[in-house]
Structure formats: structure tokens, C-alpha cells
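Sorry to interrupt, but I need a hand with the structure work. Can you supply me with one protein entry, sequence and fold together? No commentary is needed, just the two lines. Leave the record below and I will have a look.
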Amino acid sequence: MTEYNPLQNVRYFVADFAIQGEFDMEETKKLCIYTNKDDTQAHFKNQEHIIPACIGGMKKLPKGYVSDEVNTLFSGLELKLARNSPITIVRMFVGPGKRGSHNPKRRGGPSKMVSVMRSQETGKYSLGYIRMGVPITIDQIQIVHMENGKHQVSLCFDSEDADEENFLDRTAEWMRELKEFDGQATMLQEEGMPENEIILGKESGRWYLAAPTGGEEETLKANLIKELRLLGAAYEQELLNQSGACLQDKRPTGIEGFGTAHRAENHVTSDIRQEIDLYAYYRVVAKIAFNCLAEVRGREYVMQQKFDPIREAILTGEEIDKMVLMPGREKTNADVLEKLENAKGFGVWRHIVLITWVPNGLVAEVMLYGGSSPMLVVLSEEDCRDFGQMDGYVCDWENRSEMRFLEYIGEITHEDRETYEWEKE
């Protein structure tokens, strides 16, 4: 069987598709492409991103294409895409930031995975996360139990917002929060962490407790609550001591170096552990492919019954593993992908969806963050010759650009390509 290279047929397909014309449906009509419900059965106040915003998508499907109810379902799946999927780590290192931002300071959102980090220079441990390749320290208290019965306490604040001028204000605010700690924290046990050290941090309203392996979680938390209460009382007494109070009101607190602040910047290592929800990932990948199909062919086309199986799989997750496959690079259009990856003027981490007609249906290759691990989505197993040969969608989020695949091909081959017949008119 002769291998089929879609790029060889791009010009033929475009001319052929121009003759066929796109499917037309009243664009102002409100009809969900996933549930087939109209505005008497669902709400349509919001719009669905073609590519999820959490990985850089900017453009949306026309209003009325996807109901708010389905959009809410997809929001939960996209949360798992950012937090618990094969692309979580690469997104953490290269971006984008919150809601597609390229600014590291706009961190946050679903991919903020707090873990135990270790400084390569000092060997000290801390709590933080990686955002666009930069280690960020969260607000935390580090307690070391000394052999003489004393406690060595260090306060460490968000490494992006730390300011020596407002250190005392931040300390006062942090101590108030510590007094309210009730033991509800995500436990992070770290092998190699000193047995006499614990770290308690807070980020986005959630507490995290880092401790060496082997300790009993409930005992650790109960003891920590007691220590924090004692520390809070000592801190309040130290404030009184330094406020010019009467001599009889002053008492020793054992706190040394009160009010001392310094900024430490060094290299860190982070052992990041994550749980991957592969089925949720498959559903989002399939949703991306189906959204792109709706974008390039319109609502009426995707409302055909031959797309009901992929629609149902996306909504329910049933048999999604039979419709989203990991084919291996050697089984995909490797030569096409190589040309796409080497395209000049585009971001390295762009997302590409390549939709191709095959004799037994319609498939989409979804390549998130480059083309190294394409996922194959079976959009339909029925006759799809009405689609044409090939089309798709490209999200170059690094350059804030999105376009149809054929526009993308035109961009990367513009200098060498011949003029299409319809362009001469």
C-alpha cells in the first residue's frame, strides 16, 4: 500500500474544497454541538475556547456552539489537563501562565503543584513550585528541633513578593494565619529531609506540611498545632518587649534575631510527584480535535450523526480509550510533522491539530507542545469524503497567534509555493 503524504495534496484539497463550499447553518442559532440542545434546554452566555486557555488558547468557537452546562463540564476536565496530565510538567516549565499569560508573575491556577524543594547551594529544604522554569517559594514556617530543646524557627515568604521593607508586616500577618492552623494540610513526606525538621506552608488558601518519611501524620500535626500556639504567644510577647512597654511587662521569649530579613537566591531541585488522570487527558485531547473540526467546517458539519460516538465519548468518557490512541511517531505522518516542527517564525511549543480524511473515516493528530508525542483521535469511522483531504488548526501561543492549518502551511511555504488558481482571479 502506497503511503499517503497529506502535504502533497494540500493545493488540490484547497481548490477542491473551494468548489464544494462549507456547510452553512445560521451562525446566530444556539445549538450545542455536543448535546444537540438548543436555548430552550440549555444556556449560552459563554463561549468555548477552541484550544484550552490554560495551555495558551485565545480564540473561541462562535457563541451558541457550546452550552454553558457543557462548558462547566469541560472546565473540570481542563483543570485535570493542567494538574494531572502528561503535559503538566512541560507546561510548568515553559508556560503559559495563568489563563494563558506569558508573565511568570501571573502564576497560579490549576498547575501550581506545591512540592518539597532543596537548595543545591545550602542543602536546605523549602516548599514551593515551578512556574515557567522558575522556582517559586511559598509563604512558610520552618521549624528545626535542636538537641538542647530549643526550636530554630525561620519564616520564608513568597520569593516573588518578598520585600525587606515590609517584612515585619508580613510576619505579623503570617503569625495570625498560623494561629488558625487546625491540622488540615496536604502531607508531603520527603526522603532525605532531616528528622528534626518540619515545614508548614500555605498557598492559594491551602496548607502543606513537609516532613521526613516515617513520621505518623496525625501525631505530627497535633504536635505542630501546640508548637504554633506557643510560638504565637512568644511572638506577641516579643512585640510587647520591643514596643517600649513597662519593665514589669517585659519577659524573655527565647526569640533571637527578631525582625531580621534577607533574600536568598540559589538553585533548587524539586522532586515533583503527580498523579495522571489519563482518561481525563484523552477526553480533553478529543475535545480539542472536535472543537477544531467545528471551527474549520462549521456547526452543521459536526452535527452529523457519524460524529455521535466521539461526541458521547467526550461527554461521558465511555470508550474514550478506543478513540484516542498513542500511535507512536513512526505510525503518523512523520515527514509532515518534521516540516511543521522546523517551520521558522513560529514558537517551538505551538499546538497543532491535523485533521485528515482516511478511507475508513476521519482522524485528527493532536500535537500539544510540539510534535514529539502526537495523539491520534478517531473522529469518525464512517465515510467522511465530504470533509476533503486535510485541514486543521494551529495555536502558536508563544506569538499569540492562531490560524487554520492551511493558513499555517501558506505561511511556512509562502516564499516557495506557486500561486493558487483562485488567487489569480
The mean pLDDT is 78. The first strand starts at residue 115 and ends at 119.
